[in-house]
Amino acid sequence: MESAIDTHLQCPRTLSRRAGEDYRPPFPVWVARAGEDVTAVVMGYFGVQYRGEEHREEAFAGLRHLVDDFGRPDGPGAWDTTHHRDAAGYDNLIAVGYWRDPETYGRWLARPEIAAWWDADERRTGDLGFFREIVSPRADQFETLYPFTDRLPGVGGVMDGVSDEIEEHAYWGSMRDRIPLSQTDRMRPEGGLSATGDPALGGRVVVRGHDNIALIRSGQDWSEADPEEHALYETEVEPALREAMDFLRDRGQRLGCYSNRYVRYVDLDGRPLDKTYAISHWRSLDKLEQWAETHPSHLRVFVAFVSLARRFPTLRLYHEVSVFDASEQYYEYVNCHPATGLLRDAEAPHEVPPGVTPAS
Fold this sequence. Notes:
Elements: E1 32-33, E2 42-50, H1 56-70, E3 78-85, E4 91-99, H2 102-110, H3 112-119, E5 129-135, E6 142-145, E7 161-162, H4 174-178, E8 194-196, E9 204-208, E10 213-221, H5 227-251, E11 257-266, E12 272-282, H6 285-294, H7 296-309, E13 316-324, E14 329-334
Antiparallel strand pairs: 1-7, 2-4, 2-5, 3-4, 3-11, 5-14, 6-13, 8-9, 9-14, 10-12, 10-13, 11-12
Helix pairs in contact: 5-7, 6-7
């Protein structure tokens, strides 16, 4: 058994762990490991937004375009595609890409055909909206957790392997304890969200993030379930999960949740797959922890998953949590409705800060 924090990221603690030194977890889990050459990663969420079935095929053509761009030189090392319907009734397709380093992402983004497509006037007209939410945590700013060691989803897809069994899990606060930066930093938020352009008027709007926004991707995969397990998941667990996710989507703002999307994997023709995850942006790790530890909506889900774990051996659950410097975030919304993503909580429009680009 070892620490979730890799040896090259360990340092003398000035802040204590939530668990005592003699704590031993009740079951095994693992985290993704990367070599010392990985100093930061890039997580890119590229979206197409539409409303009405008459625009569905055009929207999926847009999604396929995004995935085709992933296949160009310097594209992401891992990616997936999802669908969800938001609180305003719009359908959203998202292609999520992970890069092992910001330099490779920067070269990909700078390719003329990619930059020109995003900058084209056509993105600001027509019946579709487009968005890109790009974040780049350092190696000491993110953590992962898997109860399996193969076919790691999300950021695990660009890592080098897995740890031995880890110590920091199965107690409240273990999420924070797995983030290397938590050894010396409480990761408190500073400032707020600001926007360039007016979300209410549409067009192209850029949102500037603040230090220590937290992002969690929490996933569920029941694709290998037998028919009995499949029915068990969809009748006993998924409804509680959806209720919690809808609560955060619709009422999470007062809790510090900037955006919550409960998405389902789809193929490039729109067929749903038996995999889901939540993409949730929070003002801070503190706010995320408070909801997870104390709010009834999350506790109901937690109890449902714990009670099901031994009855459902094929269910694959996982998560990844990151925090970011303000300079390592870029959120752009083109022709999207004003409650899309982080637009909802952005402050009054300001001028674009010098030096802010999609690669920053």
